[in-house]
Amino acid sequence: MKNSNRRLLIWLFLTSMAIFAAPQALAMSDGTDGKSKEFAQPETASRCMSCHGPGGISQNPEWPNLAGQKAPYLRSQLQAFRDGSRKNGMMQNVVNGLTDTDISQLSHYFSQLPSANP
Question: What is the pLDDT of residues 11-52, one digit of tens each?
Fold first, then answer.
């Protein structure tokens, strides 16, 4: 029984590491010369991924996908939650304390990820 529990814990650890590391390693084509450029996952992205899913693809139909959304849209929505003009207690708690720079980085990051429905 101990070995099976240990194996399960190792499997869970490795799976969670793979899920959260995958977006950081993502590279995208810049569309001009076929080369890829890497972009870094902002540290604050983990706040989003706990509900909106790894890579910005939600597994819950009540929460929208962030991946592939336009950066200006994401930025305006995050700012609206932060300033209270858009009401959602959970989102207001999540964005509380985000700076304008954090919001810009998150918006850019999620806009660059491949959407769920290409």
Answer: 555 455 445 444 444 434 333 333 334 567 888 899 899 999
The conformation of residue 22, written as its DSSP 8-state character, comes to T
Q: Longest Cα pair distance anywhere in the chain, in angstroms?
A: 55
State the first-to-last Cα distance of the chain, in angstroms, to the nearest integer. 44
CA–CA gap between residue 93 and residue 66 (Å, rounded): 18
Q: Taking a C-beta distance cutoff of 8 angstroms, is the pair 8, 2 a contact?
A: no
**Taking the mean position of all CA atoms in its chain, how far away is CA 40?**
11
Cβ atoms of residues 58 and 65 within 8 Å: yes
* H helix runs in 22-115, sequence order: 45-52, 71-83, 89-95, 100-112
Q: Indicate yes or no: pTM above 0.85.
A: no
